[in-house]
Amino acid sequence: MDFLNTPEFWVAVSFVLFVVGVLYLGAHKKIAAALDARSEAIAKEIDEAKHLREEAEKVLADYRRKQGNAAKETQAIIDQASREAKTLAAETSRSMKEQFERRMKLAEEKIGRAESDALRDVRAAAADAAVAAAQTVIADKLTPETADKLVKQGVDAIKTKLN
């Protein structure tokens, strides 16, 4: 009976009593029910996690599609802005060229008018100078007989031209 005093014996006895108590007292049903409930909760959590993952994948795919569309729209906007800028630059260049040509034509016309005005002024001044010189020469060298002779020739010339 020496074995009754060993701690190993009492551990074995308490283990057997525990197992028997669990089996006959229905604790195994409670433990099994608790384990079943826990496994159902875990299964629900796994299903919910799968569902959330599927939703997240759909949302991610949607955002990637939207990002691709946004990139395409951005490129389209950039292309359109580039075309508009080129068109505007060409139109501005053409407008500037036309304006330059109009201004050049106006300047050439002004220069032509100024040249003709200057030429007319020079001719008038030359005529005035020639008349003044002729008056001086005539006054210095014209005698009364020569003056009468010139007047008579002028009158005869006018008569021949009028008839």
Quick structural summary:
By secondary structure, this protein is mainly α. The chain has helices spanning 7-25, 27-141, 144-162. The longest helix has 115 residues, at 27-141.
Q: What order do the helices and strands come in, and which of them pair?
A:
Elements: H1 7-25, H2 27-141, H3 144-162
Overview of the molecule:
The chain is mainly α and 163 residues long. The chain has one domain. Helix content is 94%, strand content 0%. It contains 3 helices and no strands. It has helices spanning 7-25, 27-141, 144-162. It is rod-shaped, with a radius of gyration of 63 Å. The model has no long low-confidence stretch (mean pLDDT 87).
Mean pLDDT across residues: 87
The SS-based structural class is: mainly alpha
Question: What is the overall shape?
Answer: rod-shaped
Query: What is the helix tally?
Result: 3
End-to-end gap: 188 Å
Number of strands: 0
**What portion of residues is helical?**
over 70%
Contiguous low-pLDDT stretches (5 residues minimum) are none
Number of domains: 1
Keyword list:
94% helix, mainly alpha
